[in-house]
Amino acid sequence: MRLINSAPMGSPSTAALRPLERSRIYEDVGERLAEFVGEARMAPGDQFPTERELAHKLHVSRTSVRQSFVVLQALGFVDVRHGEGMFLRRTRGFGESLTKLLERRRRLPDVLDAREALEVKLAELAAGHRGDDDIKSMKAALAQMEAEINAGGLGIEGDAAFHHSIALAGRNEILLHLIDAMAEVIQESRVESLSEPGRPPRSLEAHRRILAAIESGSTQLAAEEMRLHLRVVADVSLLRWQPEPSDDVDTRA
Amino acid sequence: MRLINSAPMGSPSTAALRPLERSRIYEDVGERLAEFVGEARMAPGDQFPTERELAHKLHVSRTSVRQSFVVLQALGFVDVRHGEGMFLRRTRGFGESLTKLLERRRRLPDVLDAREALEVKLAELAAGHRGDDDIKSMKAALAQMEAEINAGGLGIEGDAAFHHSIALAGRNEILLHLIDAMAEVIQESRVESLSEPGRPPRSLEAHRRILAAIESGSTQLAAEEMRLHLRVVADVSLLRWQPEPSDDVDTRA
DNA sequence: ATAGGTCCAGTGGTCCAACCATTGACAACG
DNA sequence: CGTTGTCAATGGTTGGACCACTGGACCTAT
């Protein structure tokens, strides 16, 4: 009797026997709904079919349909009104959450550009508001970073704390929320950048210049210093990055 | 027999008889979970109690608990692993979706700053990539705006189309997603701004300058023109804006 | 005729109880 | 000692029941 795939681990890539992945039903329903919105040419304000009808048509339980809509509502794509029905709010990017976007398609350049857009503005705002507490926490973060580096570390914790304290100092809940949502991917690029030989001290120096600019109250200078810093970080990160073989086709025009 | 509130409509504001609003259970559960994360000092990676246990403790059905977690997962705050349990991913801003944030706390300055952060960068990126199709759709949008204005309108449609075509030309899905998520509130500020006497023609002119900058390929100039344009828009919008009486206290530090 | 009230069918909101699918740990086996 | 089987715990899904809200149809008194 011939044994198939007797090798204990790391056997050659048997394409057919790759692990099959099961998605959750409410995700599938979400995709179908996205299709439906397109096919039915739904416009904002239009009403969806009933929960019961959708459940029947899609051969799933009403619970699953509801789960889909609960998510869609949280993402702001639909309005659910008790006793009335469910209505479309906006069409573009239907069903696509930022989180899923960041997980699925990790184009590093996009992440770095988005980060720059947000953080440069936050530094500018921070320079405009700059409270004593804000400055204090920034200095504390820099001290922490310096200590980490002197101890032979990369200063990752301090780096993260510094950028976060600036984000807080910006006093803009929307931008803060966006930066927080991207925290994970940003953290990855941070580690990469600081792993480059000689980077941590230079990064610390750049941080000092940013802090000085913020403390001086010059919004323009603060923005410029932050931009400069992030461009350097981006360059280093991009060195190691190479686009994945396109696993799917970009359907956008 | 004395009738209370016999006035047919628009009776004086009886504070106690304001319409009471009922929240959905899964939203309440979400808030409790946020509390719990704080009280229990949960850190990323920590495991939540079982669905069944939470349902029992909170005196709600397991279904409601699940709906909460479905949302939390979509927003990227928790990881739900079949057969294992539910785990915390990130702490900051727990349970707060951008949509809810934009609905609840409509601080116009925040919106305008966030818009500037995103659109300035998008204009810069657009100038870097600039494909023929992109330029073409921008020109079409400007033509539409001009036609609207000549017809006595405000050019709102054309304005929106112009900014959107730039966002598309930026070739950055993350920034595009963020702008789309803010589309509604941005649209409101757009209407306000263009309603100001004499605004539409001036806005059209600013758009032409932006387009020229993008077409020239100068990323820096494109960014600067967009920033200038948005600052003017912001000034106009802010004229009519006044902060609402603070209906709740900011709990953040 | 019409203003007002009542009733009711349709819709989303919640709950429950059962069962399926996956995981990890542990015991049993060779 | 490693392999295999078993099992309990956990999330995933279902169907059905009932509640709460909305809007319109219908009725009624003026």
Please name the defining characteristics of this protein.
homodimer; 253 residues; mainly alpha; Arc Repressor Mutant, subunit A; Four Helix Bundle (Hemerythrin (Met), subunit A); two-stranded antiparallel sheet; 11 helices; disordered N terminus; disordered C terminus; DNA-binding
Mind telling me the CATH class of the largest domain in chain A? Answer: Mainly Alpha
**CATH fold description of the largest domain in chain A:** Four Helix Bundle (Hemerythrin (Met), subunit A)
How many beta-strand runs of chain A?
A: 2
Q: What structural category arises from helix and sheet content of chain A?
A: mainly alpha
Strands ordered across the widest β-sheet of chain A: 1-2
Distance linking N and C termini of chain A:
54 Å
Q: Determine the mean pLDDT of chain A.
A: 89
Beta-strand percentage of chain A? Answer: under 5%
Number of helices of chain A: 11
Major beta sheet summary of chain A = 2 strands, antiparallel
What would you note in describing this structure?
In chain A, helix 6 (132-150) packs antiparallel against helix 10 (199-216), helix 9 crosses helix 11 and helix 10 runs antiparallel to helix 11 (219-239). Chain A starts with 24 loop residues before the first helix and ends in a 14-residue tail after the last helix. The model of chain A is unreliable at 1-12 and 246-253 (pLDDT under 50). The longest helix of chain A is centred in the middle third of the chain and has 22 residues, at 108-129. Chain A is mainly alpha-helical and 253 residues long. Chain A folds into two domains: 25-88, Orthogonal Bundle (Arc Repressor Mutant, subunit A); 99-239, Up-down Bundle (Four Helix Bundle (Hemerythrin (Met), subunit A)). Chain A has helices at residues 25-39, 51-58, 62-74, 98-104, 108-129, 132-150, 156-169, 173-181, 183-195, 199-216, 219-239; strands at residues 78-81, 85-88. Chain A has eleven helices and two strands, in the order αααββαααααααα. A two-stranded antiparallel ribbon of chain A has the order 1-2. Chains A and B meet through helix 3, helix 4, helix 5 and helix 8 of A and helix 3, helix 4, helix 5 and helix 8 of B. Chain A binds a DNA duplex (30 and 30 nucleotides) through residues 22, 24-26, 50-52, 60-64, 66, 69, 80-86.
